[in-house]
Amino acid sequence: MKVLYILLGLLLTFTIANARLGEKSNHNEPARYDPYPNHHPLQCGPESCNYGEVCHIAHDDCICLPHPKPHPHPHKPRPTRDPQPTIVSAAGTVYLTSRLIGRWTDGSRGGKTFSQYDITIHNDGNRNIKEIYISTDSTFKLRDNSDASLWNMVRLNNGILGLPSYQNSINAHATYVFGFILEGVIPANLNILKIIYQ
């Protein structure tokens, strides 16, 4: 009898958890692949931030802040050239903008279409950034799946992007540009995960 009560309790817990997850879904938004479901992939001091938060570290003090959503239609192709950069991720006074540089079809690669983007990291705050980590997902399809199609950033574990060793900081009120060439016409979903200030 005890086993039956335990099984019924587990079933009830599972049912309530699924109902809560269903309440949070928004069927008006396009489905997005999430490479880090229900957890934050990077530590924020002694603990981890919750899913959907950005870790900010300054002088060994850590704070997790909610992450604003990216541009409203991440799976719609952009025009051949962006007249203005688009904000794709923000975390307080630090944000990313994306600009489509160009798009072409390459006959030497089986007629595949490629898109080149410049991403600008804007540091509008009063502190220098020592490190920044940016998440990617399945939309980040580098040409030939090669890091040669990514410049001024390095790919770390789980597809996370970080500053290269030669870039010591992003100064306060300054910008830093990195770029990449993607296969296809869909822009990459990029989200700021963690910022470490000097």
UniProtKB/TrEMBL annotation:
Record's InterPro entries? CBM_49, Dd_Spore_Germination_Stalk
Domain of life according to the entry: Eukaryota
Query: Which stretch is the leader sequence?
Result: 1-19
What would be an example GO MF term here?
Answer: extracellular matrix structural constituent
UniProt GO BP = extracellular matrix organization
Q: Can the keyword Signal be found in this entry's annotation?
A: yes
Q: Name one GO cellular component term.
A: extracellular matrix
The Carbohydrate binding domain covers 94-185
| Stated name of the protein | Carbohydrate binding domain-containing protein
Which controlled-vocabulary keywords does the entry list? Signal
